[in-house]
Amino acid sequence: MKRVTLAAVAGAHGLKGEVRLKLFTDSADSLKHYASFDAAGRTLTLAAVRQAGAGAIARFREIGDRTQAEAFRGTALTVPREALPPLEDGEYYHADLIGLPVVTPNGDSAGIVTAVENFGAGDVLDIEKPDGKSFMAPMHAVTVEPDRLVIDPVFIV
Length: 157
Prior knowledge:
Blueprint: E1 3-13, E2 18-23, E3 36-39, E4 42-52, E5 55-60, H1 66-71, E6 76-80, H2 94-97, E7 101-103, E8 109-118, E9 123-128, E10 134-138, E11 142-145, E12 148-151
Parallel strand pairs: 7-12
Antiparallel strand pairs: 1-2, 1-6, 2-5, 3-4, 4-5, 7-8, 8-9, 9-10, 11-12
Protein backbone atom coordinates (compact mmCIF):
# COMPACT_ATOMS: atom_id res chain seq x y z
CA MET A 1 0.00 0.00 0.00
CA LYS A 2 1.41 3.36 -1.05
CA ARG A 3 1.55 5.90 1.79
CA VAL A 4 1.67 9.69 1.50
CA THR A 5 3.34 11.98 4.03
CA LEU A 6 1.09 14.90 5.00
CA ALA A 7 3.18 16.33 7.85
CA ALA A 8 6.19 15.69 10.06
CA VAL A 9 6.56 16.31 13.78
CA ALA A 10 8.96 19.22 14.24
CA GLY A 11 8.97 19.07 18.03
CA ALA A 12 6.97 19.58 21.20
CA HIS A 13 4.76 22.60 21.86
CA GLY A 14 4.11 23.41 25.50
CA LEU A 15 3.93 20.91 28.34
CA LYS A 16 0.68 19.04 27.68
CA GLY A 17 1.72 16.92 24.70
CA GLU A 18 0.95 19.16 21.73
CA VAL A 19 3.34 18.93 18.78
CA ARG A 20 4.55 21.39 16.16
CA LEU A 21 4.07 20.08 12.62
CA LYS A 22 5.84 20.84 9.38
CA LEU A 23 3.06 20.65 6.80
CA PHE A 24 3.25 19.11 3.35
CA THR A 25 -0.32 20.21 2.63
CA ASP A 26 -1.92 23.58 1.91
CA SER A 27 -3.07 24.17 5.49
CA ALA A 28 -3.70 22.60 8.87
CA ASP A 29 -7.38 22.30 7.97
CA SER A 30 -6.56 19.64 5.39
CA LEU A 31 -5.38 17.34 8.21
CA LYS A 32 -8.88 17.42 9.74
CA HIS A 33 -10.09 15.09 6.97
CA TYR A 34 -8.19 12.19 8.56
CA ALA A 35 -9.04 10.58 11.90
CA SER A 36 -5.62 9.03 12.33
CA PHE A 37 -2.11 8.90 10.92
CA ASP A 38 0.64 6.31 10.79
CA ALA A 39 3.69 7.58 12.69
CA ALA A 40 6.55 5.14 12.08
CA GLY A 41 4.34 2.13 12.74
CA ARG A 42 2.27 3.69 15.51
CA THR A 43 -1.22 5.07 15.01
CA LEU A 44 -1.82 8.63 16.16
CA THR A 45 -5.44 9.77 16.51
CA LEU A 46 -5.97 13.45 15.76
CA ALA A 47 -7.76 15.26 18.59
CA ALA A 48 -7.20 18.87 17.45
CA VAL A 49 -5.12 20.88 14.98
CA ARG A 50 -4.67 24.58 14.29
CA GLN A 51 -2.61 26.67 11.90
CA ALA A 52 0.56 28.20 13.33
CA GLY A 53 2.42 30.29 10.76
CA ALA A 54 3.52 28.02 7.90
CA GLY A 55 3.06 24.96 10.13
CA ALA A 56 0.54 23.68 12.63
CA ILE A 57 0.07 22.75 16.25
CA ALA A 58 -1.65 19.40 16.83
CA ARG A 59 -2.84 17.29 19.72
CA PHE A 60 -3.01 13.51 19.39
CA ARG A 61 -4.85 11.26 21.85
CA GLU A 62 -1.81 9.02 22.27
CA ILE A 63 0.56 11.84 23.28
CA GLY A 64 -0.02 13.07 26.83
CA ASP A 65 3.01 15.14 27.79
CA ARG A 66 6.04 17.01 26.49
CA THR A 67 8.37 14.01 26.87
CA GLN A 68 6.13 11.85 24.69
CA ALA A 69 5.79 14.70 22.18
CA GLU A 70 9.57 15.11 21.95
CA ALA A 71 9.93 11.38 21.25
CA PHE A 72 8.04 11.89 17.97
CA ARG A 73 10.37 14.67 16.70
CA GLY A 74 11.23 13.97 13.06
CA THR A 75 8.45 11.40 12.61
CA ALA A 76 6.48 11.52 9.35
CA LEU A 77 2.69 11.39 9.57
CA THR A 78 1.30 9.35 6.68
CA VAL A 79 -2.03 8.16 5.29
CA PRO A 80 -2.80 5.59 2.59
CA ARG A 81 -2.78 7.10 -0.93
CA GLU A 82 -6.36 5.84 -1.36
CA ALA A 83 -7.49 8.09 1.51
CA LEU A 84 -6.61 11.31 -0.34
CA PRO A 85 -9.46 13.26 -1.94
CA PRO A 86 -10.04 12.93 -5.68
CA LEU A 87 -8.35 15.47 -7.96
CA GLU A 88 -9.64 17.78 -10.64
CA ASP A 89 -8.35 17.48 -14.20
CA GLY A 90 -4.79 18.77 -14.46
CA GLU A 91 -4.06 18.29 -10.75
CA TYR A 92 -1.66 15.71 -9.36
CA TYR A 93 -0.24 14.48 -6.09
CA HIS A 94 3.55 14.51 -5.83
CA ALA A 95 3.41 10.90 -4.64
CA ASP A 96 1.81 9.86 -7.93
CA LEU A 97 4.67 11.34 -9.96
CA ILE A 98 7.49 9.63 -8.07
CA GLY A 99 8.61 6.52 -9.92
CA LEU A 100 7.04 7.52 -13.25
CA PRO A 101 9.18 7.18 -16.36
CA VAL A 102 10.14 10.38 -18.16
CA VAL A 103 10.39 10.26 -21.95
CA THR A 104 11.12 12.65 -24.78
CA PRO A 105 8.36 13.44 -27.30
CA ASN A 106 9.74 10.70 -29.60
CA GLY A 107 9.62 8.13 -26.77
CA ASP A 108 13.31 7.97 -25.78
CA SER A 109 13.90 7.44 -22.08
CA ALA A 110 15.04 10.52 -20.16
CA GLY A 111 14.85 8.80 -16.76
CA ILE A 112 12.58 8.27 -13.77
CA VAL A 113 11.16 10.82 -11.32
CA THR A 114 12.82 10.29 -7.93
CA ALA A 115 11.49 13.36 -6.07
CA VAL A 116 9.33 16.45 -6.42
CA GLU A 117 10.68 19.55 -4.70
CA ASN A 118 9.32 23.05 -4.27
CA PHE A 119 11.80 25.77 -3.39
CA GLY A 120 9.20 28.54 -3.58
CA ALA A 121 8.90 29.19 -7.31
CA GLY A 122 6.95 26.06 -8.25
CA ASP A 123 7.39 22.31 -8.40
CA VAL A 124 10.71 20.94 -9.62
CA LEU A 125 11.26 17.31 -10.64
CA ASP A 126 14.39 15.39 -9.70
CA ILE A 127 14.93 12.92 -12.55
CA GLU A 128 17.43 10.06 -12.50
CA LYS A 129 18.76 9.39 -16.01
CA PRO A 130 19.39 5.84 -17.30
CA ASP A 131 23.14 6.33 -16.68
CA GLY A 132 22.48 6.95 -12.96
CA LYS A 133 23.16 10.69 -13.05
CA SER A 134 20.32 13.04 -12.21
CA PHE A 135 19.02 16.43 -13.25
CA MET A 136 16.24 18.75 -12.20
CA ALA A 137 13.52 20.15 -14.42
CA PRO A 138 10.67 22.54 -13.70
CA MET A 139 7.19 21.01 -13.69
CA HIS A 140 6.19 23.24 -16.61
CA ALA A 141 8.75 21.36 -18.75
CA VAL A 142 6.67 18.17 -18.72
CA THR A 143 3.29 16.95 -19.82
CA VAL A 144 1.70 14.59 -17.32
CA GLU A 145 0.18 11.50 -18.89
CA PRO A 146 -1.46 8.67 -16.90
CA ASP A 147 1.61 6.43 -16.85
CA ARG A 148 4.52 8.71 -17.79
CA LEU A 149 5.80 12.25 -18.15
CA VAL A 150 6.82 13.69 -21.52
CA ILE A 151 9.63 16.23 -21.15
CA ASP A 152 10.69 19.05 -23.44
CA PRO A 153 14.21 17.91 -24.54
CA VAL A 154 15.58 21.42 -23.94
CA PHE A 155 15.45 20.70 -20.20
CA ILE A 156 17.44 17.44 -20.30
CA VAL A 157 20.90 18.15 -18.91
